[in-house]
Amino acid sequence: MSTFVSDFKTRATEKAGDLRHRQVIRTALRGYEIVRDKRKAAFQSWESARQAAAETKWEAVNHLDKHLEALTAKLEARGTKVHWASTGEQAREIIAQILRDKKARCIIKSKSMTSEEIHLNHALEKEGFTVVESDLGEFIVQLRHEPPYHLVFPSMHLTRGEIKDLFQKELGDAPSDAPEELTMVARRVMRQKYITADVGFTGANFAIAETGMISITENEGNARLTAALPKTMVTLIGIEKVLPRFADLALFLPMLATAGAGQPMTCYNTMYSGPRQPGECDGPEEWHVVLLDNRRTELLADAEQRDALHCIRCGACLNVCPIFRNVGGHTYGTTYSGPVGAVITPHLRGLQEWKHLSNASSLCGACTEACPVKIDLHHHLLQNRRNASASEPAFFERLAYQIFGIVANEPAFWSLAKKLGWLTQPLQKAVKGSALDPARAWTKTRDLPAQPRESFKDWWRNRK
Amino acid sequence: MSERENILGRIREALKVNAPLPGWHGERSAEHLSAGDPAANARNLAARSGTASDWLPLVGASVAEQFELFAKNAADLKADFQLLASRDELKAALLKLRDAEKWRRVASHDGELSNFACKALGLPVLLTDRGYDVQEMEQCDAGITECDALIAQTGGVAVTSRSAGGRALSVLPPHHVVIARREQLVADLPAAFAFLQQKYTPDFPSMISFITGPSRTGDIERILVLGAHGPKKLTILCY
Ligand code: SF4
To answer: Which residues neighbour A212 within 8 Å (Cβ) at sequence distance 6 or greater?
Structure first.
């Protein structure tokens, strides 16, 4: 068993039994569902909006080469430097080289899951650069030296008390555990950083091919400041984030806000089309946009699951997933967790090593229903299971099903098995959960339901 | 071969196999979304299923209804919206803010309405138009800007680096005051995007920002706190 699987199982068992953790997550998500449903209901037709969003993303992803070329041409025409990176390593090197050229020391960073994906902070810190996360949730998990817990809510697993202790220890400043006061501590720390940082780094939510723009969605204003004050700006974006038209944002921005956080619109939705232009009074002198593949083209090559590239990283599928809510975000051991992470990670990081995530699903379909761009998430999880077993057949499982097939097809065998079950039942109780129990994987934490005295078949025969 | 060509090559290779259209389990073909012209695709999409205005939250047809909706949405966002009858009322509203918050210095930019506001306030003003010192702006009590549009559907405003004094003015000071004209109200987001595209094509300002309420965060136990990094207060004065 690979270490990824055993790590996942250990953490999942531990977290699922951690009542405090479950309480924290439940509290954090309770409000979400109420406001999201309210905002969805405010749409004249959420379903039509979903279908249109899905078709627009389909258009974008299925003509990706054309849109990327248009995007690049427009960006470059206004003085933006566009870089292409096939791998995470290349992207890290491109970014590090920009920082070296600029003789930068301090980088202020707004939220970017793509940078988590390529482990950017770690690489830059190793080279001696200071990296400061400015999004409050990201700042908190950075102080704790841990990855974000959730795509959208990085610190949702922490209580105010824990955050107060963290601030006290790391910053020596935590007047109380009131969220208001803790937020103001971060605000004070960050203010001077925006002004003194040499480089501002941002992620991106969408890229617009038609007008050559990068669109960033945020609530705090930290990305706005990151893109306004430092002299150099660097933006990292996955190639799949492109949308064909400027006007498409009129639909995608409110849908992202509604699905992701139950807001009508996120507080700041900002489109950047270049570095500071002639006649403008501020903004970076240089802007570098790094387009990242990192095996997205492999997912693109799988036509059946290509729609997983439609993902706008709203986090809705995580919020509604019964598995995510019980095992938590860190258990997955991946950048992208929850249903969407379980679908795309095997493509991005290897099917055999990550196929266990396809089983981290009850196939209830809540994710598919929640997804604003209609990605067929739970079917893809099923397909990943199929693909994994096709490339590495599970010998014992097959054998077991073959034997079951023979027994179930032959009434004589079947009634024999029934009798045997009835007879061995007390024995099973005695060894339940121990090494002697053949059903141990199941019975360790659950009871095997008792076999009724009268089977359905007997009942049917004796019914009159 | 450059990385650009490598990536585009892999994309073209991958796209040789068609993907089914989402939501139809492969039943519906997708020729209405061909590679050709994105504008034509948008028209085809609209012809088949309508436009975003048909699906997004409903907005009334009359200006009065739209202002009512804007006011309600702004209040939900904890923004302060005041619809004023005249320039005198605008002046009075500004003076009230100045006195209540004891402003000593404000930052602003050149513009017909913003100039009027600064003059009315009678305070020292940091103008951003010809460059400014960031530390000084950080010390200002309020940032006063104009905007491009008010959006009834969301209760937010659209600003740009050209219409609102650059990139920082609307986020760095602790209080952002937007001065707008009634004619700037648009019904919904599609109308706002269409308006901006028409106004600025082909020479867009380097930043366009839709501001929907004052800066906020919910990163600590999902409890709403205003003024995370941007302004704690957003006031929209419309006359
Ligand atoms: S898969 Fe869908 S629901 Fe999940 S994060 Fe992506 S867009 Fe949101």
So the answer is: A70, A71, A72, A73, A74, A75, A77, A78, A80, A273, A274
User: What is the pLDDT, as a whole number, of residue A16?
Assistant: 86
Q: Which of B210, B223, B233, B234 to mutate to test the interface with A (most CBs of A within 10 A)?
A: B210
- Tell me the CA–centroid distance for residue A340 and ligand 1, in Å: 6
Q: Which helix (H) or strand (E) holds A14?
A: helix A3-16
Does the distance separating the beta carbons of A137 and B30 come in below 8 Å? no
Q: Which of B18, B151, B219, B226 to mutate to test the interface with A (most CBs of A within 10 A)?
A: B219
| Cα of A379 to nearest chain B Cα, Å | 11
Model pLDDT, residue A58: 94
pLDDT tens digits, residue range A143-170?
A: 999 999 999 999 999 999 999 999 999 9
Task: Give the closest residue (by CA) to ligand 1 atom 4.
Answer: A317
Split at pLDDT 50, 70, 90, the class of A437 is confident
Residues A358-387, mean pLDDT to the nearest whole number: 91
* Whether the CB of A85 sits within 6 Å of ligand 1: no
Residue-averaged pLDDT of chain A: 92
Q: Sketch out chain B's domains with CATH numbers.
A: 3-48 (no CATH), 59-238 (3.40.50.10420)
Question: Tell me, what's the ipTM?
Answer: 0.95
Tell me what pLDDT residue B29 has.
65
User: What is the torsion angle, in degrees rounded to the nearest 10, for the CA atoms of residue B201, residue B204, residue B207 and residue B208?
Assistant: -20
- Identify the residue whose C-alpha is closest to ligand 1 atom 6: A311
Find, among B177, B124, B121, B171, the residue nearest to B147 by Cα: B177
Euclidean distance between CA atoms B136 and B124, whole angstroms: 12
Yes or no: say if B108 and B117 are a contact pair by the CB < 8 Å rule.
Answer: yes
CA dihedral for A190, A195, A198, A201, sign (positive or negative): positive
Does residue A315 have its Cβ closer than 6 Å to ligand 1?
yes
Q: Give the position of tokens 């749409």.
A: A43
Structure confidence at residue A174 (pLDDT): 84
pLDDT band at residue B28, thresholds of 50, 70 and 90? low
Q: With contact defined as beta carbons under 8 Å apart, do A346 and A357 qualify?
A: yes
- DSSP class of residue A357 equals G
How far is residue B164's CA from residue A114's CA, in Å, rounded to a whole number?
31
Amino acid at A243: L
Least confident residue range of A6-15, A154-163, A207-216, A436-445: A436-445
Closest CA to A53 of A45, A65, A63: A45
Q: What backbone torsions phi and psi does residue A361 show, to the nearest 5 degrees?
A: -155, 145
Task: Name the residue facing A55 among B45, B201, B206 (closest C-beta).
Answer: B45
Residue of A nearest to B232 (CA): A220
- Alpha carbons B169 and B176: distance in angstroms, whole number: 8
Round to whole Å and give the CA distance between A92 and A100. 12
Q: Which amino acid is at B42?
A: A
Q: What are phi and psi of A144, to 5 degrees?
A: -90, 0
Specify the amino acid at residue A92.
R
Burial class of residue A341 (count of CB atoms within 10 Å of its CB; 0-12, 13-18, 19+): buried
Structure tokens at A183: 């937020």
pLDDT for position B18 = 86
Which residue among A44, A68, A279 sits closest to B54, beta carbon to beta carbon?
A44
Q: Domain ranges in chain A?
A: 43-294, 424-462
Residue A322, CA distances (Å) to A258, A423, A444 in order:
20, 37, 21
Q: Which of A325, A234, A250 is nearest to A24 (CA)?
A: A325
**CATH number, domain A43-294:** 3.40.50.10420
Write out pLDDT tens, residues B57-78: 999 999 999 999 999 999 999 9
Q: Are A180 and A287 in contact (CB under 8 A)?
A: no
Q: What is the pTM of this model?
A: 0.91
pLDDT at residue B23 in the model: 66
